[in-house]
User: Fold this.
Amino acid sequence: KLIEDLLQPDIIEDGLHFRSMRLIDWSQENHSIDISPLLDQYKHLWHFETAYGPSIYFSRKHQYTFHSLRTLVIKQGYIDKRLFHSLLSHIFPNLLHLELYMGFNEGCNVTPSDFKTLFLNPTFVEQHFPKVISFSLRNYSELNNILPMLFNGYFITKLGTIDLSFSSSTKDTLLSLESLLSKSKMPKLEALQILYADVTYKDVVSFQNKFPWLIISMLFNLD
Assistant:
């Protein structure tokens, strides 16, 4: 009851079942809320998104299986270790898209090593995210350090789309991506989105010509 009193979701109703829920900044108080019971209550929910509300986390006392969820977007001020690891402790058997806004250094204490299980462990991926095909990792200051793990791991073999936009990207990131894309096994990858502050149009054309099979979306410097 406390959780439902605090939440003011924007819900799209489809027949008798809620299909989409977006949690907004519903309270001025600094609450920390376990949202697992809420998600478990809505058995037909396809899309769940948070948007800059109080800190949330997933239960660590009980492992839930969220059968209905197809997309999960965590977009609050930042993602800390508590939220990140509590999310990974649950099972999302039908999830297709996972989107995480990390929050740069504004409280985000998730390091590249925290991604090892998600990116590298086939057994974990097949148990917790067996159907995922799209992954967004945004606003992450450690992007350059995490790329080798992402592109050399098991998780990427399932992905058709990767969105790394709004993270701390440089020309070194582009060079690293070129090397990784040339060597990694990514049988399903079709689209990559990324943002650069110091990449020119010539750089983008050169990059695209090396990987004509990949749809690449970039924001870049026109100078």
User: Anything to note?
Assistant: The chain has a mean pLDDT of 82.
